[in-house]
Structure formats: structure tokens, C-alpha cells
Amino acid sequence: MSAIISSKLLRAAQSTTLIPTQHKRRQFLCGIGLIGLLCSTGLISRAQAAQWNRAAFTAKNMREVLHILGGNTLKKTSALILEAPDISENGALVPLSISSSLPNVNLIAILIEKNPNALAAQFMLSPGTEANITTRVKMSQSALVHAVIRAYQTWYATSKEIKVMLGGCGN
What we know:
Blueprint: H1 2-14, H2 21-41, H3 46-49, H4 54-58, H5 62-69, E1 74-76, E2 80-83, E3 87-88, E4 94-100, E5 105-112, E6 119-124, E7 132-137, E8 143-151, E9 154-164
Parallel strand pairs: 1-9, 3-9
Antiparallel strand pairs: 2-4, 4-7, 5-6, 5-8, 8-9
Helix pairs in contact: 1-2
């Protein structure tokens, strides 16, 4: 039943007909209310509504995060590129770009060694998706930033030292 409802919501969201803003807002709020109702009645679980790996995001060091994600050994490759500034003025907004020319990348993770929680971001990619993301992360202090990807069940990594002038994680 929840699959039928979610497919109807998806079709409504993908509709290309022009609807006045007031109606779009009303549809959006109804959709959010429906998802909340489905969660509260148990027709869909909270995990189905918003899946995330709590254990990985609360891990304190890189080894623990990799163990939780299922990676044990990391290989270096020139096909993985991490672009980031050498020095960031503000640790609250450190821009990062990660790209890879490896085929079948299905996971990209950003790990920051000296942050309170090592895993800063995780991106699950659908098959056929180009492995290219750009985001901003918080860094509490100068640290080594690791970009980790999984392709063909093999883990690859690259890293870069970023100096932070003003911490962004509550320091």
C-alpha cells in the first residue's frame, strides 16, 4: 500500500503542468503530512522514511567508521580526486569536491580525522551515476581530510591536509 501511495506522490511531484504556487505548496504540505501519517501508523518505518547510518555518523575515529561501513583496506588511486583549499578561513564552511573516473562507484564518504565525529558526509550513488560531488563540511581544527569511495566492492581513498583558521564545530 505504501508503494502505491509513494508512486502517486512521485508522479504528482514530477508533473510538468503549471500549478499556481498556492496549490504546489498545498500539495507539498499534504505529501509531508501523508508521510508523517504513514510513519505514525506503522505502515512505513522511520528507517524507510529517512535512512541513515547512525553508528557510522557517531563513530569517533576513521578505523571505526570504515569498519561500520564495511571497508577494511583502502587502496590509493589517481582516479580519485579530492579538491579542497589548503587553508580555510572558517572551519564552519570548508568547500570540498570529490570526483572519480572509476566505474560503478556506489558510495562516497568524507572523513575528517580531528572532528568530534569522523564521518562528515556519506553519499549513496545509484548505478550509472557519475561519481562527482561538491559540498561543504565543518572542521573543528586543522586536520587530514579523507575522501573514500567504494567501487566494485573495493575501497579507495585519497587525503589532503587542510589548515583551519577558525574552528567550526563549537570550538
